[in-house]
Specification:
This protein has 170 residues and is an alpha+beta fold. It has one domain (2-149): Hotdog Thioesterase (Thiol Ester Dehydrase, Chain A, Roll). The chain has four helices and ten strands. The chain has helices at 57-70, 72-75, 140-144, 149-152, and strands at residues 2-8, 11-12, 29-33, 37-43, 79-90, 99-109, 113-121, 127-139, 154-155, 165-167. The strands form two sheets. An eight-stranded antiparallel beta sheet has the order 5-8-7-6-4-3-1-10. The chain is globular, with a radius of gyration of 15 Å.
């Protein structure tokens, strides 16, 4: 199904999943979609390997966790998710050196908690891994406390050619 991009989310400097200056990171770019899902675009490299040419399961877990956890920003812009529980199902090997997509969606929002689900898919729309998770809501200010993180390290990076939409399996 084709989903229109509503807006691009910010990246950080050093986050493992979205950090642009983290040499070992995934440099994932996130887009909010019209169906209230969050989509991340990334490509694994050799340092993310487990078995030859396959992404490590812990890296896949980090991608899914980050994506579902930050999907709350679509609903509550000053809130981040802190993981309480995460269940992953690994369905197929996740390849390296190929552009992949990770999708997260909030399925239940309560006053202090939220739940969500997500998946990783390849360019042929094969779903490679799925997850469900529970997260504690925390205000951005409570997490960063006295840091200037939002002003100095939470950055908007314009795409040279912004994507208008993404074709996803669900």
């Amino acid at each position: 199904m084709e989903y229109k991009v509503i807006r691009k989310q910010y990246n950080s400097d050093m986050c493992f999943v979205c950090g642009l200056k983290n040499d070992a990171g995934l440099h994932t770019h996130y887009y909010e979609l019209e169906n209230q899902s969050l989509l991340g675009v990334f490509k694994g490299i050799d340092v993310h390997q487990s078995y030859p040419k396959r992404m490590h399961g812990g890296i896949i877990s980090a991608l899914l966790d980050e994506t579902v956890g930050r999907a709350i920003i679509i609903h509550e812009p000053d809130t981040w998710g802190v993981t309480a529980e995460l269940t992953i199902r690994y369905l197929k090997p996740v390849p390296l050196h190929e552009e992949l997509k990770v999708v997260g969606k909030i399925t239940n929002i309560r006053s202090r908690l939220f739940e969500g689900e997500g998946y990783v898919c390849d360019s042929n729309q094969n779903i490679l891994a799925t997850c469900t998770g529970k997260y504690i809501k925390q205000s951005v200010k409570a997490i960063i406390k006295d840091s200037n993180f939002v002003e100095e390290e939470w950055i908007f990076v314009e795409d040279s050619i912004p994507p208008m939409s993404f074709d996803l399996p669900k």
